Amino acid sequence: LRRNVDRLLCIFPFEEQFFKEHNVAATYIGHPLAGRVMPCLERGEFFRKHRIPSDRPVIAILPGSRTGEISRHLPPVLEAVNRLNGRRAVSFLLAAPAGFSQKFGNSFYTDRIGRAPIQVIEGETWDVVGHSDLALAASGTIATETALLGVPMITFYKVNHSSWLLGKLLVRVPFYTMVNLVAGRAVVPELMQSELTGERLAREAERLLDDESARGEMRLGLRQVATCLTTDGDPMERAADIVQELLQRKFTT
């Protein structure tokens, strides 16, 4: 990077400090999604559109966007859904990426979900998350989006065994979820690899649904994360300004 990059534009705040410590010219521009992530519909309108009962909690299910990760994550998520459904009235909404059914077929989710009480909503992820009381979210961009929407969440991720072992040898990080990495502390629960079980997911979900103070504390932490990811002005405009400045300097010297 030092050899080949004139300026590194960072979208997470800790990146700038890290690269500067290694003598790489870096500038934090803010996260491109900050200020953009928001529901399109009002809560009542969204509930009416999808016939969602308004008298019960809503849990968003966000198993990922790729078929492999979705297939790995759905079994423990379905177990958690069945455990929760047997104990309380909850609406479960699975947010499918836009165009997913067209690319992979309508049966992809139905074959895996079976009779579980889950409503699949495609192409309305920010509405699903923004109008939920709690999210079960794969660790990735969707967890960052959920944080920007201020919705309490439980994060998880699972890879194949060899990838996990290799990753443990090569990667040294205090957290796996970007939300916690940005915060520098455990704002949201992380259930990784063998910790991702239906029993653990259901237990964490019940704890948060029953404890308003815990959800409030998490929302406060998520607001702090959102603040860290937000800078003055549009990040892409700032990036364009920096690129223009570098090009002008390069071709006028």
Write the layout of secondary structure elements.
Layout: E1 8-10, H1 13-21, E2 26-28, H2 43-50, E3 58-62, H3 67-85, E4 91-96, H4 100-104, H5 107-113, E5 118-122, H6 125-130, E6 134-138, H7 141-148, E7 153-157, H8 161-170, H9 178-183, E8 190-192, H10 198-210, H11 212-228, H12 235-252
Question: Can you give a write-up of this model?
Answer:
The protein is an alpha/beta fold. Helix content is 50%, strand content 14%. The protein has 12 helices and 8 strands. The strands form 2 sheets. The protein has a 6-stranded parallel beta sheet with strand order 5-4-3-6-7-8, sandwiched between helices. Strand 3, helix 3 (67-85) and strand 4 (91-96) form a beta-alpha-beta unit. 31% of the residues are buried. The model has no long low-confidence stretch (mean pLDDT 93).
